[in-house]
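#structure-requests
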Amino acid sequence: MAAKMPLNILKMKKMKQEGHPITMITAYDYPTAQLAEEAGVDMLLIGDSLGNVVLGYDSTIPVTIDDIVYHSRAVARGAGSTFIVADLPFMTYHGSIDETLKSVRRLMQEGHAHAIKLEGGAEIADTVKAIVQAGVPVIAHIGLTPQSVHQIGGYRIQGKDEKDAQRLLDDALALEAAGAFGIVLELVTEEAATTISQKLSIPTIGIGAGRGCDGQVLVFHDAVKYTSSYREKRFVKTYADIGDTIRTALQEYVNEVRSGAFPAEQHVFSGDQEALGSLYGAKRKVETQS
């Protein structure tokens, strides 16, 4: 398969202008990144959702910068021709700008990301501006922001009334003015997300934000049901049930080992019988003489 040319932020803005939807999906390891690139996904996100779907936490809050760097590096090795975005995890960008830029540097230099993502609205606009001025592309994330889920009262739909929808629009405009090249809208009403998308010159990427966004993102494990027990989500479409396929395959492996069906003749290696007889025969003769 011929290598594709990765997107850049100018191409993404042009895609918005021309009405070409942008595709994004999370990836946390080398084989997933390879498969996503082969499928033609535009952007890969090493999201702090890895805390929930890979590391076994009940939220994104325990995820560290070391976690994101480790997984981003693996994704970059698997998808060398795809635009890669890495999350700044919880409390890595709320202190001094020097401390924030240290985390950003790690994601870019050690994690080999092309851009970073951080959650928040107008209150982080100055931080976004400083990161952009340092030469790093930034995609912002508003609406349902998992890192602050306890503060906003749980996993609630955002933009349901006029006041809240206006707040989201104000946040989006502030982040655009600060230099963000795109904005993720999570669990936002379709009406609010569509209005925001129309008002901005930069792309919006929706997850549970309806059909009016300039692109869509899903968590990989949701899209293919790569889990033990899957909880259905209204805003997710699942395209395969990999969890069930893996479980069934491993059950068959266990049964075949226990029954002796595996390994079969085609799975073993045989040497030259005369040479083997000479070798092991000689060994047995020496052992008998001793």
